[in-house]
Specification:
The structure holds two protein chains of two kinds. Chain A is 33% helix and 19% strand. By secondary structure, chain A is α/β, with parallel strands linked by helices. In chain A, strands 5-4-6-7-1-8-14-13-9-10 form a ten-stranded mixed sheet, with helices on both faces. A two-stranded antiparallel ribbon of chain A has the order 2-3. In chain A, α9 (268-281) packs across α10 (299-313). The longest helix of chain A is centred in the N-terminal third of the chain and has 17 residues, at 72-88. The two termini of chain A are 25 Å apart. By secondary structure, chain B is α/β, with parallel strands linked by helices. In chain B, α4 packs across α6 and α13 (289-302) packs across α14 (304-310). Chain B has 14 helices and twelve strands. Chain B has helices spanning 21-29, 40-43, 47-50, 58-74, 97-109, 126-136, 151-165, 181-186, 205-210, 239-242, 254-259, 278-282, 289-302, 304-310; strands spanning 2-14, 17-18, 86-91, 142-145, 170-177, 196-204, 218-226, 246-250, 266-268, 274-277, 318-324, 329-336. Classes of the chains: A alpha/beta, B alpha/beta.
């Protein structure tokens, strides 16, 4: 018998609230706040896209100076972890807690500094912290050391689906009885390295804003951040009288096996992930009330995603409410799926669906209800979060509001 | 949690040939260190490599080669019918460093409009397992673990869990260690200079037995944790983890060296159990260590002469493989040689 898994804590650092707390984050989403602005932290001259979602001044919210010498990615993850622990009211000193961390390039800001020393300046790097922070697995390990977590410590990379797969792997840990409490999170930074990569691929917005599912969408805006959810065995959460936000009902993860950059044109891979997650949840497609779309604002993703939803939900897809908060936050890579899962929890708690902003022109094929420009009041009992990434990665989470 | 997962295919390639034994024999005899794998003898018949329209990186060639050979051993052909029921779990921490380095140099030296788009997609560690999925047409889950020395062990655990959860029937677990010299020097670890790649195929034991195929070992139990204090010994209170004939420890980093003072490749612990140091027998195999430990276990279980060499003339039936990363993550696995249902 598989154990039920519930969410009992949330932590977030996004360009909306810059670590100031989840209530500000949620208010920003409901108000359709656009955080995409000109990039300041590195030179973007010569690029068609000059915008992104940067986070400054978040370190003041960290409880102490422990992470001062660490890379920004570790600091973002540390702040989201700190918030999630406080929110869950877990006595972490007397609990065995594990971590599954999803990221794409982790401490690449430190890595690029190291490479700059070695390859451009042809000198041995003097800063010993750069390589420490560059290793992806150093990030969850640093968090475990700070809070003395002696449970499993796992770092995964599944491109832009990394956050969803992190939640999925942590969910399996608890479901299979290997752990009672797991932190599942993701983090990534907006660095010149990543920006140059996406720019070279022509994937960045040309219009200074992100327009998911819009006919004239031109690409994504990169951003940064971190999200952490506390997952717990339901009986464990009940025993300690924890506030339960929702249940994780199902998880599906697939690969397109099609192209290293582009998603499968038919949406077959994402559609299979949707169907696996629904089947595991033991619900029908018609019970899904809301979909938090991957919705990057690129031509290929948004079309593929719409086709995947239509493929899985058939006629039901016309009744679904779908929105993309990347229209407000940009794409925070490994963090995005966790931030979007947290957003789903707030949707179910508050019966409000935040909008897809910057939606101006209807696309002939992307013709579902994307909750354009204005938040919507709606009771949501079951929400689904979709993620997709380079390499044909797809991951889908089903969350159920069991607090009513 | 008790598992019942069969290893139905296994392949390891090192500079000394196929399998772990050739590598072990060279290490024990103090033979010459060969850093690079000569791929010519392995790749002639592998479509993913033969048909590529551009020059592949060694990481891609090595993984394609071991994956192909592991499937061959398991007598599995990936096709339309089973593609969605096969998942890939890859251990890969520093396997894309050359792509990162080359992309970094390229964008530093080129104007924005002139930066090539071809390198960047391969700078993320999942790109290699995604590439394998495309080459073999594998459409199940595809998860890359970047966990240092425990990368492949975590991948094995996740693959086993996916089979138990019913989300796949077959898990291809693979890993590769090809570390660029500039990082190898920084980490003061000469063992990283050896290329090594490995893959295993995992399935439910009953499925393998039903189809009359070979089993190369059973995964009976896997647990994982994080060691906060490098000087505090791992608590092995669970009977299952001590009721074994042999323990393989992946040492070679300072953390595990402090945990197990294995200064010999072959020794005995306080309980009189045969202890093998993977670091002493095969060098520091880093991301691939998880596969190496399981492949070595499989060879010891299969090859009684090898078992007797290690275990004082006694046959080995059950092995514990303990893998520890220098940051503190730890995976403990029991491999059983009793395959009967």
């Amino acid at each position: 018998m598989k154990r039920e898994v519930v969410v009992t804590g949330l932590g977030i650092v996004s360009p909306i609230e810059a670590g100031a707390g989840i209530d500000i984050f949620w208010q920003g989403l409901c108000n359709g706040k656009n955080t995409i602005k000109p990039i300041k932290s590195f030179n973007v001259n010569g690029h068609k896209c000059k915008v992104g979602g940067e986070i400054a001044d978040f370190k003041r919210f960290l409880d102490d100076a422990y992470f001062d010498s660490y890379d920004k990615c570790t600091q973002l993850f540390a702040l989201a972890t700190q918030q999630a622990l406080k929110d869950s009211r877990i006595n972490y000193k007397s609990s065995t807690i594990g971590i599954v961390f999803g990221t794409i390039l982790g401490g690449i800001i430190s890595g690029a500094k190291y490479m700059d020393d070695v390859f451009m300046k042809a000198q041995k790097s003097e800063d010993g912290t750069l390589l420490r922070d560059y290793s992806l697995h150093s990030i969850p390990a640093s968090i475990a050391k700070k809070w003395a977590f002696d449970g499993p410590n796992i770092c995964i990379n599944t491109a832009c689906a990394a956050g969803a797969d992190a939640i999925g792997q942590a969910y399996r840990e608890i479901q299979n009885g290997r752990a009672d409490i797991m932190l599942a999170g993701g983090a990534d930074t907006l660095s010149e390295f990543v920006f140059r990569g996406f720019s070279a691929l022509g994937a960045l917005t040309q219009h200074g804003m992100v327009q998911p599912f819009d006919k004239n969408r031109s690409g994504l805006a990169l951003s940064e951040g971190s999200g952490v959810v506390v997952l717990e065995a339901k009986e464990h959460a009940i025993a300690r009288n924890a506030e339960i936000y929702c249940s994780v009902k199902g998880f599906g993860s697939t690969n397109d096996a099609y192209n290293i950059v582009r998603p499968h044109t038919t949406g077959d891979g994402l559609s299979r992930a949707i169907d696996i997650a629904i089947s595991e949840s033991q619900i029908s497609h018609s019970e899904v009330d809301y979909i938090s779309a991957h919705g990057t604002g690129t031509i290929y993703n948004d079309l593929m995603e719409t086709r995947a939803i239509k493929r899985s939900f058939g006629e039901e897809s016309k009744n679904l409410k779908i929105s993309s908060i990347k229209s407000m936050l940009g794409h925070s890579l490994g963090a995005s799926a966790v931030i979007e899962a947290i957003h789903c929890v707030k949707v179910m708690q508050n019966s409000i669906v935040p909008p897809t902003i910057n939606y101006l022109n209807k696309d002939m094929e992307c013709n579902l209800d994307y909750v354009p420009n204005k938040a919507l009041h709606k009771d949501v009992n079951i929400s689904m979060s979709l993620s997709a990434g380079f390499g044909g990665q797809n991951a889908v989470l089903v969350l159920e509001n069991n607090t009513r | 949690m008790d598992l019942d997962i069969a290893i139905s295919g296994v392949s390891v390639i090192s500079p000394y040939g196929e399998g772990v034994s050739p590598l072990v024999k060279v290490q024990l005899s103090g033979g010459p260190c060969i850093p690079k794998i000569n791929l010519d003898s392995f790749i002639s018949d592998i479509p993913a490599i033969k048909n590529s329209s551009y020059e592949l990186h060694n990481v891609q060639k090595l993984l394609a080669a071991v994956s192909s050979k592991a499937f061959e051993k398991a007598d599995i052909e990936v096709c339309e019918n089973n593609a969605v029921r096969i998942s890939i779990f890859l251990g890969n921490t520093y396997g894309v460093e050359d792509f990162k380095m080359n992309f970094f140099k390229a964008y530093k030296q080129a104007e924005p409009e002139l930066t090539s788009p071809s390198l960047f997609p391969y700078t993320t560690s999942n790109s290699i397992s995604a590439w394998i999925a495309i080459q073999f047409g594998i459409k199940g889950a595809n998860i890359t673990f970047a966990n240092g020395c425990t990368s492949a062990s975590e991948a094995i655990l996740a693959g086993s869990d996916a089979i138990v959860a019913g989300t796949c029937d077959i898990a291809l677990v693979a890993a590769v260690t090809v570390l660029p010299e500039y990082l190898s020097d920084e980490f003061h670890a000469c063992g990283f200079k050896n290329e090594i790649a490995g893959a295993i195929v995992l399935e439910k034991r009953s499925n393998v037995i039903k189809s009359g195929r070979n089993i190369y070992g059973l995964l009976k139990r896997i647990s994982h944790s994080f060691l906060l204090d490098s000087n505090k010994a791992i608590q092995c209170e669970q009977d299952a983890y001590n009721a074994v004939d042999c323990i393989i420890i992946n040492n070679g980093n300072s953390f595990s060296d402090r945990q197990y003072k294995c200064d010999k490749a072959i020794g005995r612990n306080d309980l009189g159990i045969c202890c093998l140091s993977l670091g002493g027998l095969a060098g520091n195999t880093f991301s691939a260590a998880g596969i190496l430990g399981i492949a070595l276990s499989s060879e010891i279980l299969e090859n009684h002469d090898l078992a007797k060499l290690f275990n004082n003339q006694s046959i080995v039936r059950k092995i514990r493989f303990l893998n520890i990363d220098s940051y503190g993550s730890c995976v403990d696995t029991i491999v059983d040689g009793d395959y009967e249902e």
